[in-house]
Structure formats: structure tokens, C-alpha cells
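Sequence in, structure out.
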Amino acid sequence: MAGFAVFLVGGVIVLELLTGTGTVPVQPAQPVQQEGMGANMEAMQHLNELEAQVSANPNDAAQRLHLANFAHDNRFYDKAIEHYHKYLEKNPKDPDALVDLGICYNDIGRFTEAQSFMMKALEISPKHLLAHFNLGIVNLKAGDIEQSNEWFKKTAALSPDSEVGKRAQSLLEQHGTIANPGM
């Protein structure tokens, strides 16, 4: 779920960059504004419930990962980062969690950390599609269009018919770079 959310957030970021604003504001560690304050309070309440469950059973890796994903999905980045790190202490070879942690760092504008965790995911799983794609997003957001395009090319080559591969190809075309040299 976090991966899909990143895909959507990445698209919004790219559109912001391409529409000429040049900057994308870093989101504060606040929950998503959905349906006013009630949704924020509900998210905060659910986050507190999840934290209580994890505190009661700190060795439940699945519950901690669920907590980290929920925190990320609701833009509680500080909590998400904390719980991804704790989860990864016991599960250091989970490429999905590494990518999700990298996405959190990207979302708060800490691009070096974002790249680091996504690269760790690729060391474990060299063909991890979302790691490749999100490295493209991180580099794009950081202003390195050339490096971004390289990651999008790799993504499109890995899975040209997938939604992520097609999105990477679309981003390449928007930047004036066609990933398929035979065209």
C-alpha cells in the first residue's frame, strides 16, 4: 500500500516540478488532511492504538511494519521512520521496508538518506522495481534530471508492461528522453 501511495505521490511531485513551480514543499510530519479535523483525529487515535499494540508485543514484526506503513500513509513521518528502523533492526533484508523507509526520507526532503536505503534494497533485490522507480523520483525531486532519467530507463527496461514501467516511460518522455532507442 505504501508503494502505491509513493507511486501516486511521485506523480504529483513530478507534475509540480514539470509545471514550473520548481520547488515542491516538504510535507511536515502531519497526518493527511482528509475530510477536515475529524480524519486527523481518527488517524492519530488509530496510530496511538497501533503503538500500544506494538508496545505490548514488541517482537511482533508484522504489527510493527503495519504501524510504520500506517504512519507513513498518514504522513506521520517521524513515527514511520522510527518504526521502519526498529523493524529493520530485526529484518534488515526486507527490500520493501527499505524502500518504504527511503520514501519517508524522500518525503521530508532528506534525499541522501532516501537514496541510501533504496540502494540497500537493490543490493538485496537487484531487480526491485519500486526501488528503481523511486530512485528516479528521489533524483528528480533533488534536481538531478540526468540521474533520474537513468533510473526511469532501468525501471522501464525491467518491466515495460507494468504500470510502474509505463509510468517511468511516461516520465522519460516528459523529460524529452525516450527510453526505447529504436524509436
